Amino acid sequence: MTDPLMPLVMAVETSCDETAVAILRGKNRMLASEVSSQISLHRPYGGVVPEVASRSHLTRLKPLISHALENAGLHIDEIDAFAATTGPGLASSLMIGVSVSKGLALSLRKPYLAVNHLEGHLLSPFFGREEGIVSCIALVVSGGHTMIVEIGEVGKYQVLGHTHDDAAGEAFDKVGKLLQLPYPGGPEIDRLAREGDPSRFDFPRSMMHSGDFNFSFSGLKTAVRYMLPKLQGESMANICASFQEAVVDVLVHKTIGAAQVRNKKRIAVSGGVSCNSRLREKFSRACERKGFELLVADPKLCTDNAAMIAYVAAERFALGQSSPLTEDIDPNLRLV
Ligand code: KG4
Ligand code: ZN
Known about the structure:
alpha/beta, Nucleotidyltransferase, domain 5, 2 domains, five-stranded mixed beta sheet, 10 strands, binds 5'-O-[(R)-(carboxyoxy)(hydroxy)phosphoryl]adenosine, binds zinc ion
């Protein structure tokens, strides 16, 4: 049981198309985690429309906060600190969550904490672990980012490599669009690939043996585009499974390579693409074979959510940190 006197942190996440609110007691006790997905709003456009997203955050956020408080059995006065995602993301979306969180902090005279969305993803595999955050190699793989990071401790990160072009999730979504699957393509490809043969087509594994920890996925997407006319009548499941295999092989190979080079015993995988069933399967097999401990969050904590933002805020709050109310959003915020 967590000490009931541990501080209560409320976090708001509105960096893209999910409106989310979470309340944590201390670092590890989740009292509420609400996510209101806008996927159905954006699906007709085949991608996120920024103005539709920000207008929707505006109407959804207040009821979601009330709902989170109700689920946690708390009154807003009891919250000890307010946090929000400050970047990276869509400017008009970030602004909604940050303004609301700052407004609550200001009116209730409580501290405010600005949180980097990427740090939220990065640390999410450690949430709920007795040991807390430990040194490891981390792969953050989402719709906007693909990077390998060496974690020393909270706030001590070194980016070892990143994508030169598309993020892995972006490649999933763009290939999903080419295959005329509903947006977002990632979960659809994952579902269809389960019935397919991953070795049916040999799609390129770009930069697999480049000797560094960088990635490139745009060539793979182009390869699918050029092959499609020749694949008429081929099973969609085989195309999805073969494409997915190419993405997963590179991600697993490079992350394991980084852990070996940097002499780490643990590998943490996070971000929306870490929900992918084949990625999880191949990572756990490779880690078992090579003697690494694998840390992957519950799928609910892999896609965008506010619990991961509250977790980072709680870690920082415990270190005595807070942010000035003058700290602005930064749509291009980097991890380091
Ligand atoms: O972390 P996230 O929710 O948002 C960003 O910060 O980008 O990641 C969303 C990405 C999308 O590209 C989506 O297609 C991908 O994660 N994704 C998946 C799966 N679930 C979500 N990709 C592959 N397989 C999945 N099961
Ligand atoms: Zn994200």
